Amino acid sequence: MSKMRAHLFVEGRVQGVFFRACTQEEAQERKLTGWAKNLYDGRVEAVFEGEEKDVQSMIEWCHSGPPHAMVVHASVEIEEYRGEYSDFSVVF
Question: Which domains does the chain carry?
Fold first, then answer.
């Protein structure tokens, strides 16, 4: 199986709707590592590492997010897999 890393920036109504907490739950279900954090401009930034199929599934999820979110745009940068995280966390 192939490992990959994705770096996302998610725009829309994504803060104050449990986007980061739900992202953490979804990432943990997929056994992904990385992090998610709110940005001052209202976006959420996240990095996911793991099996390619699981990262791709997480990218798809981020295009809609949890029920109360309204994602307008999600930009994705595929980066070289680094394996630098041991779990998935919410960064404050």
Answer: 3-91 (3.30.70.100)
**If you average pLDDT over residues 67-85, what whole number do you get?**
98
What residues contact residue 59 under an 8 Å CB cut-off, 6+ apart? 6, 8, 48, 74, 76
Marked catalytic residue, from 20, 30, 43, 82: 20
- pLDDT at position 1 over 90: no
Active site residue 20: yes
Q: Which of 5, 13, 30, 38 is catalytic?
A: 38
**pTM beyond 0.85, yes or no:** yes
The mean pLDDT of the chain is: 98
Helices H / strands E in the chain, number of each: 2, 5
Residue 38 annotated in active site: yes
What is the three-class DSSP state of 80? coil
